[in-house]
Predict the structure.
Amino acid sequence: MDLLIARELDNKDGYTWTLASRLGEALHLAEQLFGERDKNYTVLGIEFIGENNPPRIWYPGNRKHVVIQLTKASLYDEFQALYQLAHETVHLLAPSGHNNSSILEEGIATYFSEYYMSKLGQSNWKSTKQTLIDALDLARKLLSIDHEIIYKVRKIEPSISNLTKEHFYQIRNDLPDDLLSKLCCKFND
């Protein structure tokens, strides 16, 4: 619950971290790594959803608004909330209006979750979902070849989930075809 209530710092020079301020920090880091977000979408904030629902982004009202939904369990676990928040932050870079992410986007989102948690001194946070682990492994292979490849290729096609092998080949022609073929497929959970 500490992530919901901002408290003024003792030195009167700001406030304690909340989910809203952590989202701002995470979004800034994600943009540095992967390129600017699509500002045609308005991020409305963060909410918690009921039992048995996974974390996700939601598009209320079909008017280019987006909300991050975190699990109810994360309401009581600060680091779980931050891990989920970091993952969903990547989906804010290029919202589509519906949930149709690619293996690449899910892999990058999982990569960023772990990266963000390590920045917070919590490097033990890892996904336990096999489909996300597989997507992460593929994304890591791509990033090990060129850690700025997503940033570069999003200048050609901003939507991570709409990237094709051809987009990547405009940046580098030495990327493994089989790796790109897998990454550019739609993610099936």
